[in-house]
Specification:
The chain is an alpha/beta fold and 238 residues long. The chain has one domain: Carbamate kinase (3-Layer(aba) Sandwich). Helix 2 crosses helix 3, helix 5 packs parallel to helix 7 and helix 6 runs antiparallel to helix 7. The longest helix is centred in the middle third of the chain and has 24 residues. The chain is globular and about 50 Å long. The two termini are 30 Å apart.
Length: 238
């Protein structure tokens, strides 16, 4: 495939933790991790610079500790994202894709601390950089981390890979008449309270004019389709 075919040259891929768990809904399904790794490899082979943020919901849902201190629960969630990041790194490196994990909370033995210039350099050299531990702050989601890191590395687009194939006016799993949107403005998302990203993340994308493509991860090849500019999922932009 020609390098020219890629519509975007630098992207931020946001994967939910649930996406890694497959049908189980919990833990890591390595068949899925390996499939995602193969799709990322396609992008790297096309010359696309790939940053990634993985959630932690397959291991720890932030509010799941009954009566637990919110800050403690959030830090546990950040550690869960590190487990996922290392799993994805392993899947990528097993197929020859050079990958670095950078964490917002320092843990030198297993990953580099997040240093923007170093991350940029890795990307220029064709390495995939997985940003783990969210923003390093409680009260901020991994969606916000994806928006923040996307702005910092100057990504052209955020690819938001979910279990649903786009943004709907209501939950398509519960309502047969749920309507899917092809495109939305940031303001629509904020006004309607649509479940794309949380409001902090959406506002960050709006302020920095970073478009978001929301699509389903269940169909193999969707990440590449999004990169080639094919119309899939829902586009959130100005």
């Amino acid at each position: 495939m020609e390098m020219e075919a890629a519509k975007y040259k630098k992207i931020m891929l946001k994967l939910s933790g649930e996406a890694l768990s497959g049908e189980n809904g919990f833990g890591i399904d390595f068949n899925i991790a390996n499939r995602i790794a193969m799709e990322i490899k396609d992008l790297v082979d096309m010359g696309v610079e790939v940053g990634a943020v993985v959630g932690g919901g397959n291991i720890w849902r932030g509010r799941s500790g009954e009566g637990m201190d919110r800050t403690t629960a959030d830090y546990m969630g950040m550690l869960a994202t590190c487990i996922n990041a290392l799993a994805l790194q392993d899947s990528l490196e097993s197929i020859g894709v050079k990958t670095r994990v950078q964490t917002a909370i320092e843990m030198r033995e297993i990953a580099e601390p997040f240093i923007r210039r170093r991350a940029m350099r890795h990307l220029e050299k064709g390495r995939v950089v997985i940003f783990a531990a969210g923003t390093g702050n409680p009260y901020f989601s991994t969606d916000t981390a994806a928006a923040l890191r996307a702005a910092e590395i100057e990504a052209e687009v955020i690819l938001l890979a979910k279990k649903v194939d786009g943004v709907y006016d209501k939950d398509p799993h519960k309502y047969d008449d749920a309507k899917k949107y092809d495109s939305l403005s940031y303001i629509d998302v904020l006004k309607e309270g649509l479940q794309v990203m949380d409001t902090t993340a959406t506002s960050l994308c709006m302020d920095n004019n970073i478009p978001i493509i929301v699509f389903g991860l269940d169909s193999p090849g969707n990440i590449k389709r999004a990169i080639l500019g094919e119309k899939i999922g829902t586009l959130v932009s100005k």
